[in-house]
Structure formats: structure tokens, C-alpha cells
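Priority: low. Protein: Disintegrin and metalloproteinase domain-containing protein 9. Input follows.
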Amino acid sequence: MGMPLLSHPCFKAICVIALLNGLGDCSEGSASHQTSQFSSYEVTIPKRFGKQRRDMDSSDSNQVSYIISAMGKEHVVVLEKNELLLPEDFTVYTHAKDGSLITNRPPMQDHCHYRGYVEGVEGSSVAMSICFGLRGVLLMDNSSYGIEPLVSSSDFQHLVYRLEDVVSEPLVCGTPHTEQLAPSEQDHSEHHTHSDTHKQKRAVLLQPHYVELLLVVDHERVSEYVSIDLPQFVTLFPFLCNMQMYMELNIRVVLVGLDIWTSRNPISIEGSAGEVLSRFVQWREKELVPRRRHDSAQLILKKSFGGTAGMAFVSTVCSRSHGGGINFTNNNIPSFASIVAHELGHNLGMNHDNERNCHCGVTSCIMNSGATGSRNFSSCSADDFEKMILNTGGSCLLNIPRPEEGYSAPYCGNKLVDMGEECDCGSDKECEKDPCCEAKTCKLKGGAQCAYGECCKNCQYLPGGSVCRGSNDECDLSEYCNGSSALCPSDVFKQNGHPCKVDKAYCYNGKCQHYDGQCRAIFGPKAKAAPEVCFKDVNSKGDRFGNCGYQNNGYKKCESRNAMCGKLQCENVQSVTVFGIEPSIIQTPIAGIKCWGVDFLLGSDVPDPGMVNEGTKCGENKVCLNYDCRSADVLNYDCDIQKKCHSHGVCNSNRNCHCENGWAPPYCEAKGYGGSVDSGPTWNDKDTATRDGLLVFFFLVLPLMALGLFVFFRRNELQRRFCRRKRSQGYEAPVRCTKPFILYLRTYFHTQTEGILRTYCLPTQPTYIMETVRSTPCPPPRLGRP
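Result:
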């Protein structure tokens, strides 16, 4: 199956070797500065050799080998080029001086990135760039080693060091806590019981999940590489998608795009980390989400914020408004890799491991609040991820990336459908249970239409109109299979600003955001929002239990007009928090009212889920955004349902009409089956079962029913006609004389007087019947000759 060593469990390669080629060009780079980053290192001169000497100096060889002397012996590193690292239509976004967007498709067919193994070392793995010297990671003998060129060396000298020997500034994410918290913006009205969750948990990791990642690089970071052109700069990111550390959680991370702030930063990076994160996710929602489909975006910043390594929202990987993080990088690849993995882990529902009973096989795990250079996720991280999936927080992760959208190092067997593949079921063992995909070729088996996707079942496309992503909120809209694709259409929902909860709230990113729902999500089903006086009093304090965000010098007090957008205040709290964690809960009595608030102690790199959700209606025509109660006009709700959708639908997040059942898109003015141009068809236009059933009913069943009714109501008349016809044909019918409700059986005898034949019938025992029969004269018998 291609290169099986990449799927080996011990291959915990660098998550992001994003600055792989350019680190040696940094202005502050010097040999003394470089070596000061390591507590221990070796200097070596790698020697390259190949099968043919004339290929030794070729820069585009598909296979190369190096001898690296380190750790007291020589190691032969065998490398093979990662072909098709980027699809031909891979798009890179840059920005002109005036801020206008520039779309580029740089030629990426030739590159200098390889993967391989150490000869003679079982289970070893190597990820390496040979663009400007050797940069990468070697994993062997249960240890991880880094290699990079020695700055200012003229004779190809390199540094080799253990990753654990990297000296880095202590980075702390915040106060320890014990367990994961569900996303603040999700209102889970239904909660799994412990037994239900336990039954489902282990099944979560058996299902592959796919993270479509988009990387954004800020202007200060880009400015370090002014000496290289765009194609060269893009090659700094080839291994970002090789986040093999996620493989043990059955998560595949695929880089689907790059946005490089070449001219200037479109957002301010001044202020606290929380303020920068808030600006970034708002910019992402407005600019990045409409441009390129992705699940999470990570901003790479050169600027640091003291001891904070990064910051991200928890369990928001599928959120349009909060699916992102910021990462503060330095020139050390391993520490930078773990920072990105840590912040992306937060998006995936993972919280810090501190003071929890977690294990990952090494001293420090990735989600430890102070870990840098870690490469293993812990058992707690796996549990946190499972909880997010069970709480419906990762629905977008089941959407397998399209081959043309991925930026990865493709090979048959990586369980990603790369360019030129129709399917990819993984290793030979995994493919034994796959009825649709050929393991060796990554092609569909005979008769199979598909092998993956929400609209694929038993290797066949689901019929058009099948629900592939159901609505989970009154502000959400369902999507349907189209009958000719295995993939579900992109997620759409009611346009932000659409009224919900009987005009008491607004729809915001597919959720009806209201205070009562947020209180129930934290304190259980009986909780509800506290009166406004609680918000104004508590949030004016400017402490951990009442504030409007965090500034560099501490918590920010809420102005009176913004109090409803600060810390959430609830009442009627009769139980502890539904998440089962141990937060700090405060009760503030105000004017005879018990005002309840909570601080989850998640740390400085995690936004507080105890705050009022963005998009919450904080007054008449007012909405909360970034702890500020603003005019709802900021949501840009411009849907005139009567004019645009003819009062038979709503506007979706793409500003298209989603029609009610009985009306047809795009404008809901003609009869139809509902839905929108974005949702897929709500009916199966190829399914003739309904049509055939109607034809059978109207042309067979209905006529037979009419005939039966006709016979039933005209049965007496039909009987008389039948009798007359029989008599005319010489048929001797039995004589039966009747009276209403009583049937008399007669005994006949005949007399003949004066030439007149007379017939007499004597009644015998009467037989009662259930219906009235008209009295009919008994016909005389026909006499033969004596």
C-alpha cells in the first residue's frame, strides 16, 4: 500500500515544518544564536550518494540517500520524493498593497520534500527537506532527532539534536482543569447519560474524521522571506498536512489552502492575545469562509504575547464564527509544530492535560499547558475528542475532502482520496472489510459507484432527496443527496440576523442564540437567564466572575450598555454544571434574586465559555459581538422574505431562498418540493416508485373499487336481470318464497280444476335472514307429459 512506514504508529513527524527552508535566512540568524537553542547537539556533514554518480548533484532526483554521522555511528537515510504534493489547481491567496485579493496558482510540480526511513532501523521514519541543506525529523529507536543546516557554514555543516534537548521559553496556557468543556456556542438541549456515552465512545475513534485546515501567515512573518518568490515560499509548507500525530486518533488533517498577508495585515495584531484571536475569527468569517471551504484556520504570527504560545476556541472546529486559532512562532521547528497541534487540538474539543490522569507514553503530552515539542496526544485528549463528537460538535469532520482541494503528500493507503484515486481504504488489513475499494489500486471495485461519503451506502449513491445532514436547530437547514454524488452539499443555515424564538432572538451561524438556552447548556434544563440587574451589577466588577473580556492589565469592566454581553448570569439553578467538571461557581444575591455565574478555569489560551455567546440579542435591534452590544445592522441581514422568497421560504447563509415544502427554488414562486439551490434536491427526480404507484392506484385499484361499489349497491337489480336471463334460457330455478326477514321453504303440489292448473305451497320451518328481501312470486313449475 504505497509507503507503509508513514502509517506506522511511531511516525510522529513534525506537524508543521512550515518554515522549513527559510529559517536560515532570518535576520537574527547566527551560529551562536542558533546553537543556543539546544542544550546538547552534534555537528555533522551529511554525505549524499545515489545509484548512479551522475545523479548525485541532481536537484530533482526522485530517490536520494544520505549518510549522517551522529550518536556515535553512521546512519544511512533513504528518501523518496513526495510526488504530487499539490494538485495542479492548488490556490494561494495573496494581497496587493491596496488590500485587493490576488489569486495565484504557482507551479508546484517540482519540489524538494522527501520522506523515508533509516536503513536497518525497524520502524524508523524520516520527513526531510533538501531544498537548502537538510531540514527535518528522524524518528528511530523510540527517540526523535532534528537536523538543520548550521548558519554561516561554508562546508555543508549541520546540527543534529534530540528534540527534547531544545531550549525554549516556558509557555503556559493557563490554570489547570480536569476535563473538557463543550463549545460555548452550542446549546445541547439533550445530554447523553453516562451509560449511553460509554457505549458509544469507543466507536468514535473507529470512524475516520477529516479536518480541512487553512493556514494564514501574517505580514511580519512573510517579510522574513523577501528574498524568495511565491512558489519558493509556498514550498515552506509541504509537511503541514503530515500531522501523523493525529493518526492515532483516526484524524486526518488536510491543508486545503494558504492565505499569505504579503502587503499588510488586514487586522490589527495589537492588544491581548484574546483580542487578536477575536479579530482573526471575525475576519475569517467575513473573508475566508466564503472564499474557501475549510473546518479550521490557524494564523501564524511572528509576534509573541509574553508567555502565551497561542490561543484557540474549544470544540469549534465546525463553527463559521469561531473555528480558528492563533499561533506565536519562533525559529525552532519542533516547538512551533507542537504549538499548532496544541491550538488545533483545542478546536477539536481537547483541553489541557494538567492535573488529570492522562498518559501518552512520554513525559509531556501535546495538550499539556506548558508543552513545546511534544508529539503525542494523551488518553485524555482522545476522551475529549470523543465527547465533542458525541455532542454533535464535529459534524463537518465526516465530510471527506475532495481530491482537488487537498494539499498533502499523497500515496495509496493513507485513507485520503488523492488526485488520481477513486477511493482509499487504508492498509491491506483495513481494506479487508471494505466492499467497495480495491486496496492495491485505490480504485472502485466492479459495480461500485462510490466508497465513501454521507451519500454513499453499500457502494451505491443514495437516492436524490435523502437527508445527509439534518437540521439540528431552528436556525439550521437540512441538506440532501443529489443522487449522483457521494458527497453531501456544503452546510448552509438561515441567514445571520433572521429572527428566531418568536422574535426574541437572532439566528447566528446556525444557532438560535438566546440567554435561556445558554443557561440550560451550563446549569441544566431548569435554568434560565437572570434579570438584567444581575448582568449590570456583576459585570461592572471587572473580575473573573464579572467582566467584558480580558485586557493586558487584567479583566475589563463592562460599561452599562454592554453588561448583557459580558459574563452570563442565570437563575433557577438547581444542579451543578451539566459537563461534570469542577469550575468555580459564584452566587450573587441582588435585590432578592440569586444570580449565578461560573468560571471554568480553562487558561489564558482558551476563551471563556461562561461569557454570553456572540450573536445573542441584547436589546431591541441589538446584538452581542466581541463583548459589545451593537446595532443588529452589523449582521447585514438583508432578506426581504415577501419580495425575494414570495413569503414561502427564508434566506440561507448564501443569501438564497430556502423554500417551504410545496414551493420550488430559487424564489419559491412556483409549486415544488422545497429546499434551495444550495441544499440539494428534497425529492428524487429519478425515483419512479411514487409515479408508478399512482399509476397503479388510478388505473387498476381505483377502477376495481368503483366496480365493487357498483355491484354492491345494484346487487338486487343485477340479481333480477340474471334470473330473467336464466329463465329465458330454459333454466329451472328453485322456488323460493320470501317475506321480509323470514324465508319460508314451501312444499309444492298441483291440482287441475276446470282445466286450470293451480299450484299450492305449504310453509315449513321458517328460516330468518339478516336482510329484507322483496317478496317475489314463485314461478310455476314446468310440467312434462304424464
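Residues 8 and 579 are 35 Å apart (CA to CA). The domain at 4-170+178-184+192-404 is CATH 3.40.390.10 (Collagenase (Catalytic Domain)).
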